Every structure is written in C-alpha cells, then in structure tokens.
From TrEMBL:
SIS domain mapped to chain residues: 36-190
PROSITE patterns in the cross-refs: SIS
Organism: Acidisarcina polymorpha
Family named by the database record: Belongs to the SIS family. GmhA subfamily.
Keywords: Carbohydrate metabolism, Cytoplasm, Isomerase, Metal-binding, Zinc
Residues involved in substrate binding: 51-53, 64, 93-94, 119-121, 124, 171
Main enzyme class: isomerase
Protein name: Phosphoheptose isomerase
HAMAP family reported in the protein's UniProt record: GmhA
Length: 197
C-alpha cells in the first residue's frame, strides 16, 4: 500500500509541475485576480460555485475572502452559492438541480460582478447555466476546469484549464490556484505590504 501513496503523490506533483510550466495558465490566473480586485474596488462582488469537492472549494475560497488569507485586512465581498440548503433544495425540487446556481445569480448578480465556476469536467449543467446567465447580465466569468475545458470553455472570460483529466488531481491543482488567486486579489486590493507571517 505504501507504494501507492508514493505513486499518487508523484501524480499530484507532476500535475502541479505541468500547471507551473503553463505560462498561459499562469497569466490567466493573474488576470482573473486583477479583474476581481478591480470589481471589488468598485463595490462589486465575487460569487463562486461548483459541485462535490468543488462545492467545498467554493466555500473554502470564499472563507478566505471574507475572513483573511495572508493579509490582516477588512473583509472582501464574496459569496458561495453552495451553502444555503433551503435554496438548493427548493430550487432543485421545484425547478431542477441544473438551475440551483443560475437562480441565485438571477437573484444576486449585478453587472460588473464576477462569477467563478469550478468544474473538473467543465460540463456540469448547473455551472454551465450559471455561466450562460452571467454572460447576459454582464457578470464577468472565470472558469476553473480540467479535461480540456469542456463545454464551459466558451462561456468563460478567464479560463483556467488544468492540463489533466483525472478529477482528484485537477481538484488538487484547483485548490493551489484558488489560494494564489485570492492572495493576488489581496495584493491588488490592499497593496503588497503587511503580509501575515
Ligand atoms: O470530490 C470529488 C472527486 O474527487 C467529487 O465529489 C466530485 O467533485 C463530484 O463528482 C462532482 O460532481 C464532479 O463535478 P465536476 O467537477 O465535473 O463539475
Ligand atoms: Zn474529492
């Protein structure tokens, strides 16, 4: 069994190395952070959603914005669309699960906001529908995906596609990139000084 642990960690590291070598991807993460900080500086907000492990990512990332990541600073305006079980069950039950994020964007989304959709396949219908609605509302769209980007690729203004087709490894890279994205937004918003140790 121990050799499997070693082998799997090797896969995690190999995917992260591929991500680090992908200059286009690195540039997109930096641009996505800049546009998010600009939106927040104008009083707009970040909305985040995904399914399963990516729902956990959505909540994790939003917690960094609302609490803090590396800077001791005021709260930043962000919300995860994965946390309200009453909304998720009502919309899922009455309209269909594929509308559970779209409906919340209909309620909350304003022109100039940012939506970050996370899907390792790039094909989850509820994420696709949310991205499509954002396009009509003038909400900036960021996608974190894998598997070549899937169907969400054409719906994303900023497209972070992890070069991998294994869900768990894509998720591991997503988490690393989500932390860096949040760190960069903090830097753009508040400046590079006063970083926590
Ligand atoms: O965490 C994992 C697998 O590592 C699962 O919960 C996974 O997130 C779920 O199967 C999701 O439904 C997958 O959706 P997506 O990433 O393709 O949009
Ligand atoms: Zn998982």
């Amino acid at each position: 069994m121990k050799h499997i642990v070693h082998e799997q960690l090797g896969k995690t590291i190999a995917v992260l190395e591929k991500v680090r070598a992908d200059e286009t991807l690195l540039g997109v993460v930096a641009e996505a952070a800049e546009v998010t900080a600009e939106a927040m500086l104008k009083g707009r907000k970040l909305m985040v959603a995904g399914n399963g492990g990516s729902a956990a990512d959505s909540q994790h990332l939003v917690a960094e914005f609302v609490s803090r990541l590396v800077k001791d600073r005021p709260a930043l305006r962000a919300i995860a669309l994965t946390v309200d079980s009453s909304i998720l069950t009502a919309v899922g039950n009455d309209y269909g699960y594929e509308k559970c994020f779209e409906r919340q964007i209909e309620a909350l989304g304003q022109q100039g906001d940012v939506f970050l959709g996370i899907s390792t396949s790039g094909n989850s219908p509820n994420v696709l529908r949310a991205l499509a609605l954002c396009r009509t509302l003038g909400v900036v769209t960021i996608g974190f995906s894998g598997n070549g980007g899937g169907k969400m690729a054409p719906l994303c203004d900023y497209n972070v596609i992890v070069p991998c087709d294994t869900t768990m490894n894509i998720q591991e890279s997503h988490l690393a990139l989500e932390h860096i994205y949040c760190m960069l937004v903090e830097r753009c918003y508040f400046g590079a000084e006063s970083t926590l140790v």
